[in-house]
Specification:
The protein has helices at residues 20-23, 37-42, 85-91, 136-143, 164-172; strands spanning 2-5, 47-50, 55-56, 59-60, 68-71, 100-103. By secondary structure, it is of the alpha+beta class.
């Protein structure tokens, strides 16, 4: 089993969650514990790799280096997942400076810089978060929310019943896939 974790991920970075998707699996269970989770997981062939948008010594943190310990947070890096102070206050899951994790997945040839950005509406940088493009689930949830505010596009006026499937097909006709919509609703 492979875990690809990202210390920049704020999804499971809450202080009371501390999910392995952000922090990885630590070598020790705590200061007063004799448990070693990584040693225990070795029997089930558990491997982990770290992906991060962070740069160290002017270069990206490479994925696929030889197995060994890797700093979860180096000196002068953000204390909080996501890299922002406000995000950190919300997440409340600080990362200790100098904490190392065992990255035990096999070496990749060649090691490579992770591509942490792509497909966003606004692309991020190593020090600033991007903005995700809404996926179909987000769009459907928003359309079903009567309090959601949208920049609605007027299609046309019509009296009488409307076949939304036909309207949808008419709207999408000739448009590039990224300009099409899968959802439409009739204004009451």
């Amino acid at each position: 089993m492979y875990l690809y974790f990202c210390p920049d991920d704020t999804t499971v970075a809450l202080d009371d969650v501390r999910g392995i998707g952000t922090y990885g699996v630590w070598d020790t269970h705590g200061k007063d514990s004799t448990r070693n989770p990584m040693a225990e997981l070795k029997a089930v062939r558990f491997f982990q790799r770290m992906w991060t948008k962070r740069y160290r010594d002017g270069s990206p943190v490479m994925v696929g280096k030889p197995p060994g310990h890797e700093l979860l947070r180096a000196k002068n890096e953000s204390r909080y997942p996501g890299g922002g102070f406000i995000t950190g206050l919300i997440s409340k899951g600080p990362i200790e400076e100098g904490h190392k994790l065992l990255i035990n997945a096999e070496q990749l040839y060649p090691p490579h810089a992770p591509n942490m950005f792509g497909g966003e509406a606004v692309e991020g940088t190593p020090t600033a978060s991007g903005r995700d493009r809404p996926d179909d689930t987000n769009k459907a949830s928003a359309l079903g929310n009567p309090r959601a505010k949208f920049n609605w596009r007027y299609v046309r006026s019509h009296t009488g019943p409307i076949d939304l499937e036909q309207e949808l097909a008419r709207w999408n006709m000739g448009k590039a896939p990224g300009e099409q919509t899968r959802l439409m609703r009739k204004k009451e």
